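Tutorial handout. Part one gives the primary structure; part two gives the three-dimensional structure as tokens.
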Amino acid sequence: MPNPTLSAGRAKTVSLVLKDKFGNDASVDGAPVWASTNPDIATVTPSADGLSCTLVSSGRMGTAEVTVDLDADLGEGVRSLAGSALVDVVSGEVSAVALLLSEDFDPEMPGDEDDEDAPVEEDGDEPATPTPNP
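Part two.
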């Protein structure tokens, strides 16, 4: 399965979905800690409660891994749990156009090719000349 994508220079929200082993909604102890393994490609800014973050592309293309670490133990102890996702930053929408001119070259000129419509010579006679219609 391909990685999710983010357009260069854009942002998106990444949200946690927390479930227990029975599929029920679950909570964490304290605010989760978010990070990007490649901040040159994308950075993360956690929300106040840490249950989501904003992923912002720097504008460069590449891949960054978004990670989150949290405490799954709701009591006195700590049970660390981590999650991650790879995100590919891809080129954005075209915003500039440039024209690239090649080196000069000799174009094909009329008559450089065999002319299929040329009159056909018959048995060594002079080439047939088309007669104009009066």
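Part three, for discussion. The CA atoms of residues 35 and 67 lie 5 Å apart. Residues 5-90 form a domain with the Immunoglobulin-like fold (CATH 2.60.40.3440).
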